[in-house]
Specification:
The structure holds two protein chains of two kinds. By secondary structure, chain A is of the alpha+beta class. Chain A contains eleven helices and ten strands. In chain A, the strands form three sheets. In chain A, strands 1-4-5-8 form a four-stranded mixed sheet. In chain A, a hairpin with a 2-residue loop joins strand 2 and strand 3. Chain B is 54% helix and 15% strand. The chains are: A alpha+beta, B alpha+beta.
Chain lengths: 410, 370
C-alpha cells in the first residue's frame, strides 16, 4: 500500500501544478461568508476566460480524443487535474454539465459536421450547454416525461416544459429529451435532440429556491421548431441516448461542501455549553467522531476507487455511496452546528452569529443535495439493485402504452 | 496511488477463505456456542500449522514475518466465519504486548510457543464495568506478586499465560502471570456470545514477572489497544460483510406478497444502508492497516476511526440481518444470532464506542492544536 503517484502520474501532476501556479491564485481556507448564490453574468465571463486558458494549455477535455481538441489522456489524469485545480481560486460549475454530459453524448450520436461545429467551441468555453431532461411530472422517473415532439416534414415541433435546468439562463445550446410517440411503452417513445436555447419558442424562467438563490430554471417550449438534422439517435431511441448522458454524470467528481467537519470543530471550540467549550461535552464529541468516521470512510473509499482507475478499471455504481453519505451529512452538520448556539441558533445575521452564519445558510441549501442528481431513494435503489443484485421492483408501467398510464394530479 | 492489499496478501486471503470454509463451518462455531468446548482446539492447531499465529511475529522468534497487512487479512477472514478460537487475545494482545514491552529473553521464551500454538495467552485489563482507564486499574503488583480481580478476561479460562495490568510503586505496570500457578482462581463467565471464552480471574499473591520498563505501563496499554483496534476492525468488517451477504441472499429467495422481499424498497434501502456502512468501515480499516504496517504517526487516529466505523457497521449489519430474516432470524437454528452476538461482543471488547469516539476527538484536537 502506498499513496504515491506512478512516475507518469507524478509528471502530469507537476505539469498541472506548474500551469496552475502561473495562471491562478491558491485558495486560502477561510471561515468567511459562503453563501450559495446565483452565478451572475460576470462569473460566467470569468469562467469562459479560464476555460479558454485551460483549453489552450491542453487541460480541458483531458480524456477526450485529440481529434476533438482533447489531450487523449487517462481518467487518472483528469482526477489529478481536478485535485490540483480544486486548490486554486478558479471559477467552476459553469461547464460541468456541458462538457461532462452533453458533449460526450454529442460525440456518441451527432454527425461529423456537427461535431466539427460544436465540440471545439464548447471545449474552449465559447459556448455553454445545458441538459433538458427533468420535467414537473418526470423527476426520478425521467422516462415519464411529456414534452411532445411531432414530426412535420423535415422539422420537429416541440411543446412542453422542462424544470430544474441548471444554467439554462446562460446556456447557448441544450440537450433535449422529448416524447415523440405517446402510444407505445414509455421508454420506447422518446427522441433526443440538441437545440439552440435562443431559438424562438424557448423561454427560460428562473426558479426561486427555498434558500433564496436561483440556480435552476424552468424552460418552456411553445411551437419550437427543430430541424431533423438536430435529432440524436433514431426516433424512439431517446432513452438509450439519455443513458449515455447519465452514465457520464456518475463520473462527475464529488464536491467538498462547507460547513465540513473542520468547521464544526472550530465552532464547537468557540462556543460554550454549560460554561465550558462545547467540544468538551461528550454528546458533542460523539457526533463529531461519527462524522469524522464517515468523512474519512469516504476519503478512503475514493482512494480505493482511484486505485482501480489507476489500473484501468471503470468505476461502478459504488460511487453512489459518496452522494448518499455526503448529502445527509451536510444537512445534519448544519442542523447540529445551529443546536450548539442554543436560542440564537436560528439567527442568520453573519455579523452576529459565529462562522458568518455558514451553518444557517447550509441548513437552507442542503435539502437540494439529497434530491438533485439522484435522490437518496433512487441512489439506494441503485446500490441495492446494481451492487447487491436485489431484484427490481414490480413495474406497473412496463407493458403499457405511455398514454394509458395513470398520472395523478401532482 | 496503490491503496490496495498486495498480491501476496490477496493470495493469503484466498488461501484463508478456502481453509476456513472447510475447517470452520457454522457447526464448529455452534459446538463452542452450545458449551461442548471452550474453543475449537482442532481449528487452533490447524491455524498454527498454517503459520497464522505468527503471521506478524518476526522470523527470529519463529514467526512468519509477513507483517501486519497479512495479519489484517487473516483477521477479516476469521471475523467472517466467527472463528471460535483465542486468536485476538493471544495474537493481537498478548503477543503484541510481549513484542512491544518484553525483554529479549521473554520474547525468546514465549513467542515461539505462541507461534506453534502451544501457548494460549491473554491480556487481563478490565476490572468490571468501565472503559479502559489508568485510574480504573486497582489490581496491585508488589514483590513479584499480583493481587486483584480481573473480569471479563477474554479466553481467561483457557489461557495459560496472562499479561496483567496492575498498579505498582512507580505507577501502572504490566506483568506476566502463569495462570496455572497457585494464587490464580478462574471462573468461566456466561457471555452474550458464548462462542468466545471469557473468565473472571482472582489473583491472590500470584507470582508475576515484570513486563517492560516501570512507569510506562499505561502508554503501552494504550498503544496495544490502538493496534488491537485495527485488527479487531478487520474482524468486524468480515462479520459485517458476512451478515450483509446472508441478508441479501435471503432477500432474494424469500417470497412474500407474491414477490421476493428484496424487491421491496423497505428491504432494499435497509440493505443499501448496511452496504454503505460496511464499505465506509472497510475503507477506514484499510487506512488503519496502512498506518499499522507503516507504524505511522497517524496510527492512533486511524485506529480509533476504524474502530468506530467497524463497530457501527457490524452491529447494524447483524441486527438488520435478523430483521430481514423475520421470525426465522430469531430462531436458534438460523445463524443470524451468531453474528449478532459476536457484533456486540466485539463492540465492547476493547472499550465501547464512548471510549473510541472520545479518542477520535482527542486525536483531532491534538492535531488541530499542532
Amino acid at each position: 500500500m502506498d499513496f504515491d503517484d506512478t512516475p507518469e502520474e507524478a509528471a502530469f501532476r507537476a505539469e498541472a501544478r506548474a500551469f496552475l501556479g502561473s495562471h491562478a491564485t491558491r485558495k486560502q481556507r477561510s471561515s468567511g461568508a459562503l453563501r450559495y448564490g446565483d452565478t451572475d453574468a460576470a462569473e460566467v465571463e470569468r469562467a469562459k476566460a479560464w476555460q479558454a486558458k485551460k483549453a489552450d494549455a491542453g487541460f480541458a477535455g483531458i480524456t477526450w480524443q485529440k481529434a476533438w481538441g482533447g489531450r487523449g489522456g487517462t481518467q487518472m489524469q483528469q482526477i489529478i487535474w481536478n485535485q490540483e485545480e480544486a486548490e486554486y481560486e478558479v471559477p467552476h460549475n459553469v461547464f460541468l454539465i456541458g462538457l461532462g454530459m452533453c458533449i460526450p453524448t454529442m460525440i456518441a450520436y451527432a454527425g461529423a459536421e456537427q461535431l466539427q461545429r460544436y465540440v471545439r467551441p464548447a471545449l474552449r468555453g465559447e459556448e455553454i450547454w445545458c441538459q433538458l431532461f427533468s420535467e414537473p411530472a418526470a423527476g426520478s422517473d425521467v422516462a415519464g416525461l411529456r414534452t411532445r415532439a411531432e414530426k412535420r416534414g423535415d422539422e420537429w415541433v416541440i411543446n412542453g416544459q422542462k424544470i430544474w435546468t441548471s444554467g439554462a439562463h446562460y446556456s447557448d445550446y441544450g440537450l433535449l429529451l422529448t416524447r415523440s410517440d405517446p402510444g407505445v411503452q414509455k421508454h420506447a417513445g422518446l427522441t433526443a435532440f440538441f437545440i439552440d436555447m435562443r431559438a424562438p419558442g424557448v423561454e427560460v424562467r428562473p426558479i426561486h429556491q427555498m434558500s433564496g438563490a436561483s440556480n435552476f430554471n424552468e424552460v418552456f417550449f411553445t411551437d419550437l421548431r427543430v430541424p431533423d438534422s438536430q435529432r440524436l439517435g433514431t426516433p424512439g431511441q431517446g432513452w438509450k441516448v439519455a443513458i449515455t448522458t447519465l452514465m457520464n454524470e456518475r463520473l462527475a467528481v464529488g464536491e467538498i461542501r462547507r460547513p465540513d467537519l473542520q468547521d464544526l470543530i472550530e465552532l464547537a471550540r468557540s462556543v460554550e455549553l454549560d460554561g465550558r467549550p462545547a467540544i468538551a461535552d461528550p454528546s458533542v464529541r460523539g457526533r463529531i467522531a461519527d462524522w469524522h468516521a464517515k468523512s474519512q470512510g469516504l476519503t478512503y473509499t475514493r482512494l480505493r476507487i482511484l486505485t482501480a482507475l489507476s489500473r484501468g478499471t471503470t468505476p461502478g455504481p459504488e460511487n453512489s455511496i459518496a452522494k448518499v453519505v455526503n448529502a445527509a451529512k451536510l444537512q445534519d452538520i448544519a442542523s447540529f452546528g445551529m443546536d450548539l448556539l442554543g436560542m440564537a441558533g436560528g439567527v442568520m445575521d453573519p455579523e452576529l452569529v459565529p462562522m458568518h452564519a455558514m451553518f444557517q445558510d447550509a441548513l437552507l441549501s442542503s435539502p437540494s443535495h439529497r434530491i438533485a442528481g439522484g435522490t437518496d431513494e433512487i441512489l439506494r435503489n441503485i446500490i441495492a439493485e446494481r451492487v447487491l443484485g436485489l431484484p427490481g421492483d414490480v413495474r406497473v408501467d412496463k407493458d403499457v402504452a405511455f398514454n394509458q398510464l395513470p398520472s395523478g394530479s401532482r | 496511488m496503490n491503496f490496495d492489499f498486495s498480491d501476496d496478501s490477496k493470495l493469503l486471503r484466498e488461501q484463508a477463505q478456502r481453509f476456513l470454509r472447510e475447517q470452520c463451518p457454522p457447526k464448529t462455531v455452534r459446538h463452542v456456542l452450545e458449551g461442548h468446548a471452550p474453543y475449537s482446539p482442532d481449528l487452533w492447531r490447524a491455524m498454527a500449522g498454517m503459520g497464522w499465529l505468527g503471521a506478524a511475529v518476526p522470523e527470529r522468534y519463529d514467526g512468519a514475518g509477513l507483517g501486519y497487512e497479512a495479519l489484517c487479512v487473516l483477521a477479516e477472514e476469521l471475523g467472517r466465519v466467527l472463528a471460535p478460537v483465542p486468536f485476538a487475545s493471544t495474537v493481537y494482545l498478548a503477543a503484541e504486548a510481549i513484542l512491544a514491552a518484553g525483554s529479549e529473553a521473554q520474547k525468546r521464551e514465549y513467542l515461539p510457543r505462541i507461534v506453534r500454538g502451544e501457548l494460549i495467552a491473554t491480556l487481563a485489563l478490565a476490572e468490571g464495568a468501565g472503559e479502559p482507564r489508568e485510574a480504573g486499574v486497582r489490581a496491585r503488583l508488589s514483590d513479584g506478586r499480583v493481587t486483584g480481580s480481573k473480569w471479563p478476561v477474554p479466553d481467561g479460562s483457557i489461557a495459560q499465560l496472562a499479561v496483567v495490568v496492575a498498579q505498582d510503586a512507580t505507577g501502572l505496570a504490566l506483568a506476566l502471570v502463569d495462570l496455572t500457578a497457585p494464587g490464580v482462581i478462574r471462573a468461566v463467565l456466561p457471555m452474550v456470545d458464548p462462542s468466545r471464552d471469557h473468565a473472571k480471574i482472582e489473583f491472590d499473591n500470584a507470582p508475576a514477572t515484570p513486563l517492560g520498563a516501570p512507569g510506562q505501563g499505561w502508554e503501552t496499554v494504550r498503544r496495544l489497544l490502538d493496534r488491537a483496534a485495527v485488527l479487531t476492525a478487520f474482524e468486524q468488517v468480515g462479520g459485517a460483510g458476512a451478515s450483509l451477504e446472508m441478508a441479501t441472499a435471503y432477500a432474494k429467495e424469500r417470497f412474500a406478497f407474491g414477490r421476493p422481499i428484496g424487491s421491496f424498497q423497505a428491504i432494499k434501502h435497509k440493505l443499501a444502508d448496511v452496504y454503505v456502512a460496511t464499505e465506509l468501515a472497510r475503507s477506514n480499516a484499510y487506512y488503519a492497516a496502512w498506518a499499522l504496517s507503516a507504524d505511522a504517526a497517524e496510527l492512533p487516529l486511524a485506529a480509533a476511526t476504524a474502530r468506530v466505523s467497524a463497530t457501527d457497521a457490524f452491529f447494524v449489519a447483524a441486527k438488520e440481518n435478523i430483521q430481514v430474516h423475520g421470525g426465522a432470524g430469531f430462531t436458534w437454528d438460523y445463524d443470524c444470532h451468531l453474528f449478532y452476538r459476536r457484533a456486540k461482543l466485539l463492540a465492547l471488547s476493547l472499550g465501547s464506542q464512548r471510549y473510541w469516539k472520545d479518542r477520535v476527538v482527542a486525536e483531532l484536537e491534538t492535531r488541530n492544536a499542532a
